[in-house]
Amino acid sequence: MQYITMEEENKVNEENESQNTVKDFTYPSFMGRAGAYIFDGLILSPVFVLLFFVQGKLYTNESMFYPALIIELMFFIIQNSYNVFFTKRFNGTPGKLFFKFRVCREDGMPVTWETSIKRESIYIIRNIIYLICFYAFIAINREKITNFGIATYLHSETLLSKIENWIYFIICIFDFGKALFSKKRKALHDTIAGTVVVYKPMNPNTSQGGNI
Q1: Which distant-in-sequence residues (6+ apart) come within 8 Å of 41 by Cβ?
Q2: Burial class, 205, CB count within 10 angstroms (exposed 0-12 / middle 13-18 / buried 19+)
Q3: pTM score > 0.85 for this model?
Q4: What pLDDT score does 198 carry?
Q5: Is 163 helix (H, G, I), strand (E, B) or coil?
Q6: Is 127 left (phi over 0), alpha (psi -120 to 50) or beta?
Q7: Cβ proximity of 145 and 154 under 8 Å
């Protein structure tokens, strides 16, 4: 008689659960994913409006130059953390959950922290590049800059800033364009992380959507 260890048994059960899950997947439409993205934007908008308001008050105040820089950093931290945290903790951002979507790995299992960070990685990298370029520009031209408003304007006029903006635009086109033409509506960030966005109805016993 052949015996298997508890670890091997758990692995088999996990694989069986994954196989039973994947075959039940249905995928949201491109417009559905776009709607979830817009919904998340609406949730974050009050926070961003508040930050913009505070930062605007600091634009022409020379003594408030560095606090304004910190607020610039907070924009990106909040946006990236929002996506990473909710995707890992709840299998989807509030926008996706509102539309009954869930994010899972391609094998049907819930995402890990590593997977969630990978899923956001192209935007994290883009934001880091922007901040490095922006802060480096300020460090080089500090004598010419008296407040945050001038720093933002002068940096936006540089060739490096224009190139960075075009790169970001191209990334967005490829990211969402891939979801438009993908059979499983997988965006570029899904491909990088090995994830899919699936539809899961409220009733887990129905045939649409898996147990994720």
Answers
A1: 95
A2: exposed
A3: no
A4: 93
A5: helix
A6: alpha
A7: yes
